[in-house]
Design brief:
The complex is a heterodimer. By secondary structure, chain A is of the alpha+beta class. In chain A, 34% of the residues lie in helices and 26% in strands. In chain A, strands 7, 8, 9, 11, 15, 16, 18 and 19 form an eight-stranded mixed beta sheet that branches. A seven-stranded mixed beta sheet of chain A has the order 1-2-3-4-5-13-12, sandwiched between helices. Chain A has a two-stranded antiparallel sheet with strand order 6-10. The two termini of chain A are 37 Å apart. Chain B is 23% helix and 43% strand. Chain B has two helices and ten strands. The chains are: A alpha+beta, B alpha+beta.
Chain lengths: 479, 143
């Protein structure tokens, strides 16, 4: 399918409204990144999302966009709560897959000799990979509490501090969660996975702050050059995957797909105002809360390993949560549309919220800077910390990218890695990796991803978020 | 057509995983789809199944049935910790399926996990009956 792109400026392109599209598409990218974008079906997916009922403004795509299932990865779409829809596919199976970044008082130079041991201890103590089980076994009652309270449950039960909730989107608890809509299958899959990392592109990474771009904001975020930071990327595990699957099936049972006139079955959706739509929102909230509790437990486990391995006190480690962001979610938010305040459900499928300075939903600590926006690179290259900016509210419903974005399929990455030792290549760069899955390293090798500095460059240039710091990987554990 | 690895190919998909599966009959197509998915997910020693799980599913059409069918096998692995050694379709019509899954309990010492499949998606799912009288299916998985 030949899709016409009209250049707006150096980092924005419009797909004009054609055929069944209800709104135009708006792509954030640059000439360099667009070459790969045009090789896969992600532009088609932007057009497909534009056909969905009640969509407002544009069908958006962030600069890390690539071919997903239904929505493109990097897709953002807003729907009016009055006449719009909610789409499980627009959130994804891994509901509230997201990241958190922790700061410490440690200098990377002081722990170089212990890095190998630290990575090894993290790998041995944090359940990682498919089939891994948590040491925390939840009762049914506890599981329901996690579903309703999220990160707050974790803090109440000794995993973290109350201050962590200030530094988590939605304070780690999404409203409208109702565990009665969660199936037995989802409960079963989630009962022994709280505090587990997962596999695929999930990871836990020890980093050093390599570059400071904005010293004032970095100071507010608690970042300084040479500092050790830790990045965690994980989601709602089997609990969330099953909830999404259950509601896709239920929508498939109850809504004749032909009546929606959508080009892709994965885009099946229900009116936000319908009973089915409301029940999905409740289920999504349960999964989102599970994911926040999960990342809270992972952070707690990480802290314990650091203290034990380095033989230091909590005061000396001084590990704190900088922020926790979602990148697979639908959030109920207020935005200006044609100069009127509207309540919308913003679907971010591989995209991060990016609220600017002064936004009322930001914690007091970040009102002056804007929201921390955490962008993990691939395991061989930099991650970035940005701060939400005003243009995001004008142009992208307060959204930014979520990562580097894939450019190679997993099978292609495996083919290209033949004869190479990715493990050795990373080691030569000074990056220690421990992993479980046989193909993990090959599938996730740096060449499989876009250049994250280009992706972040577009976000910065478009004013969606501004660069604060760059982080270089030192050690990684993966499933 | 019994299952062999020539019955499926991997489709290049940027973020996820796609499979193209073939079968001489619809029943074989559905059985081969299970084998193809498991082939990608887990490396199992050749084992005799020890348990049987009866499956009954309804769907809107064949494609919907295929997604639900593979989703069922995936749940038995992810949720019940049972690895399907082989699946036998007992009856299949455009809107209804009955089958048995012959399984063994998941054992990390016997089963090497190759790839975590999170879900079977509806994205671009298609079943064709080709001019060579062979059935073919395309399925995309979230990994």
């Amino acid at each position: 399918m030949d899709i016409q792109l009209e250049k707006l400026d150096s980092c924005r392109w419009v797909i004009p409204k054609t055929g069944q599209m209800r709104v135009p598409g708006l792509i954030f990218s640059n000439e360099y990144l667009l070459k790969d974008v045009q090789k896969d079906q992600s532009l088609v997916q932007v057009c497909n999302v534009a056909t969905m009922p009640g969509i407002v403004g544009y069908s958006l795509a962030m600069p890390d966009m690539h071919w997903g299932y239904g929505f493109p990865i990097g897709g953002v779409a807003a729907f009016d709560i009055e006449d719009g829809i909610i789409s499980p596919g627009g959130v994804g199976y891994d509901i509230n897959c997201g990241c958190r970044l922790m700061t410490t008082s440690l200098l990377a130079a002081d722990i170089t000799d212990l890095m190998r041991h630290l990575v090894s201890e993290l790998f041995n103590n944090i359940p990682t990979g498919l089939g891994s089980r948590s040491s925390v076994r939840l009762s049914k009652k506890d599981q329901d509490r996690v579903a309703v309270e999220g990160a707050a449950w974790a803090v109440k039960n000794g995993y973290g501090e109350p201050g962590d909730l200030d530094r988590t989107e939605d304070r780690g608890t999404m409203e409208r969660a109702d565990p009665t809509v969660v199936s037995e299958r989802a409960r079963k899959r989630g009962i022994d996975q709280l505090g587990t990392l997962g596999s695929g592109n999930h990871f836990l990474e020890i980093q050093v702050v390599d570059t400071i771009y904005d010293s004032q904001k970095a100071r507010t975020f608690g970042l300084f050059k040479g500092q050790v930071t830790i990045f965690i990327h994980s989601g709602s595990r089997g609990y969330g995957h099953q909830i999404c699957d259950d509601f896709l099936k239920e929508m498939g049972n109850k809504i004749p797909f032909d009546s929606l006139q959508l080009p892709d079955r994965q885009l099946i959706c229900a009116p936000i105002s319908s009973d089915l739509g409301r029940r999905y929102i409740s289920g999504m909230a349960c999964a989102a809360n599970y994911a926040w509790a999960n990342r809270q437990l992972l952070m707690h486990s990480t802290k314990e390993v650091f203290l034990r391995t380095l033989g230091i006190t909590p005061r000396e480690l001084n590990m704190h949560l900088l922020y926790d962001v979602c990148h697979n979610i639908a959030k109920r938010e207020e935005h200006m549309v044609n100069n009127k305040k509207k309540t919308l459900y913003i679907h971010r499928k591989g995209a991060t919220r990016s609220f600017p300075p002064g936004h009322p939903l930001l914690p007091e600590a970040y009102r002056s800077t804007g929201q921390p926006v955490l962008i993990p690179g691939d395991m061989g290259t930099y991650s970035y910390v940005l701060a939400g900016a005003e243009a995001a509210m004008r142009h992208s419903f307060g959204s930014s990218c979520h990562g580097a974005g894939r450019v190679l399929s997993r099978s292609k990455a495996i083919r290209m890695s033949k004869g190479r030792s990715i493990h050795r290549e990373l080691k030569d760069k000074g990056i220690l990796v421990q992993f479980r899955g046989k193909n993990t390293l090959k599938e996730e090798m740096p060449d499989a991803y876009k250049d994250v500095s280009q992706v972040v460059g577009v976000v910065h240039e478009a004013g969606l978020a501004t660069k604060v710091a760059r982080l270089r990987p030192l050690g990684v554990i993966k499933g | 057509m019994g299952f062999d690895e020539q019955n499926f190919t991997i489709i290049d998909h940027t973020a996820d995983l796609g499979l193209r599966v073939r079968g001489e009959t619809l029943e074989f197509l559905f059985e081969n789809s299970v084998q193809a998915m498991l082939n990608v997910m887990v490396k199992a020693q050749a084992l005799q199944p020890t348990e049987t799980a009866p499956i009954r599913l309804d769907g809107r059409d064949l494609e919907d049935l295929l997604v639900r069918w593979l989703g069922e096998v995936l749940y038995w692995f992810q949720g019940e910790k049972k690895v399907t050694i082989h699946a036998r379709i007992l009856s299949l019509s455009p809107k209804h399926l009955e089958a048995n899954l012959h399984t063994v309990p998941y054992d990390p010492t016997q089963h090497e996990i190759l790839c975590e499949i999170k879900a079977v998606t509806y994205h671009q799912v298609k079943i064709n009956h080709g001019p060579d009288d062979v059935w073919e299916a395309k399925i995309i998985f979230d990994v």
